[in-house]
């Protein structure tokens, strides 16, 4: 009798633990957090904040910054982030000739790969400036162009509150534009994690096939 009672208690406890883990891991949907213009002197702090809050993101790196700071590209990967191509010198690609666009994109692919960031599959044109030529060159390098559904306006000196609220507008599959650098963006990270969790959304990867946020592979 005593043994059977203990067994029942153990089974009940296991059941409680199991359901707790299941609910903690439940995601009603995924969103794509993106941070452009790195790596910068703020990258390590950003990575620390993201990790501490259980968030993963896509970092759209500038090629010349990746070439100058390869260790930070490796740190992005080590922290569980995905690395994308954001051109080599951050120009208005939609105002350039095809050969220049090709150079901007191809040099960045090489710089990120050489740094240890893998060969990117995602590409974001600076300023969202794109056209048929830019799209065509990106496709030539196996890159999916990713713009955004929500602009946090962190590049425009948005407040921490405004950045958190922008994240709170995301729905399943959507992508938000943020940057590696602004102090308010870094300060917003814990509250971004809270607002997403309150809505049952998890930070996911951006699918190179669909351009939508999905569960991490
Ligand atoms: Zn940019």
TrEMBL record:
Signal peptide: 1-24
Record's keyword terms, sorted: Hydrolase, Metal-binding, Signal
Ranges for domain NodB homology: 29-204
Pfam families for this protein: Polysacc_deac_1
Membrane spanning residue stretches: none
Record-given protein name: Polysaccharide deacetylase family protein
Organism annotation: Lentzea rhizosphaerae
